[in-house]
Amino acid sequence: MSPDPRQLISRLRPLISSDQAVEDRRRYFGIGQPPGVASFTGRRFEYLAGGGDRPTAANVVTADDLIAVQILSVTIPGEAALDLLEGDVGGQLSALLHEIPNDMDMAEAGAADLSPGSPADAAWRLLTDQPGIGWVAAGKLLARKRPRLLPVYDQVVRCLLGRPKSFWLDLHAALRADDRALHRELLALRRSAQVPEAISALRVCDVVLWMRHHAEHRGADCNGQGHQPDGSS
Asked: CB under 8 Å to 203, separation ≥6 — which residues?
């Protein structure tokens, strides 16, 4: 059965269309902020060393990628990092990356590009099988390699969205619904916030959601910390 996008759209649209979304985006990336006002280290996630999807590095994990996920507050343990850079796991991941499109937005992809058994799903599972690499770190590393196709996803966003069962497929359905209306709204938000075009629609969405909930999520009343989601999440 195909995912029903209506519930996720109903959660996303008010957040994306709010005036706060524009301000949060500008604050996160340090756009138009007064001197001395700090932006967030994650602003460099896409850009560090030319990006994880640059042609010379798109299909291999580099040390720059490991630093990039670290500025999004996750760390790949030392042994796992070495295996990704120089070992068998890195070779396996590289083979899978060759099969994952590098020039496609999630809204343009087919469900087969994200479903269980796809190269993207296999890459996520390969990473989460490694000691010390959880679902958040695995997702952020893949988002670094395929920023237009695969989203950053963590406990903060999962909590705000009500823990969707399969985030990739649910978000994919939401972005494609109504002739990709939500995707176009994210691009419009990118323009209104004067965020560079190199930032993907997926990352626009992630930053809006994370900025809206990250402070509250740390509070004692937020129960968003839950069990690990199953697969491609």
From this structure: 45, 46, 143, 147, 151, 152
The count of other CB atoms within 10 Å of the CB of residue 62 is 18
Please give the Cα distance from 215 to 119 (Å, whole number). 35
Cα 105 off chain centre by: 12
Q: Among residues 205, 181, 182, which one has the least CA distance to residue 193?
A: 205
d(CA 189, CA 204): 8
d(CA 210, CA 23): 13
The alpha carbon of residue 117 and the mean position of all alpha carbons in its chain are separated, in whole angstroms, by 20
CA distance 193 to 190: 5
70/134 Cα distance (integer angstroms):
14
What is the residue extent of each domain of the chain?
6-217
Q: Which of 143, 129, 123, 128 is nearest to 42 (CA)?
A: 143
Q: Dump pLDDT digits (tens) for 6-38.
A: 999 999 999 999 999 999 999 999 998 777 676
- Token digits of residue 203: 């990352």
Phi then psi dihedrals of residue 4, to 5 deg: -90, 115
Give the length of the chain.
233
Pair of tokens at residue 41: 């280290």
Over residues 151-165, the pLDDT tens digits come to: 999 999 999 998 898
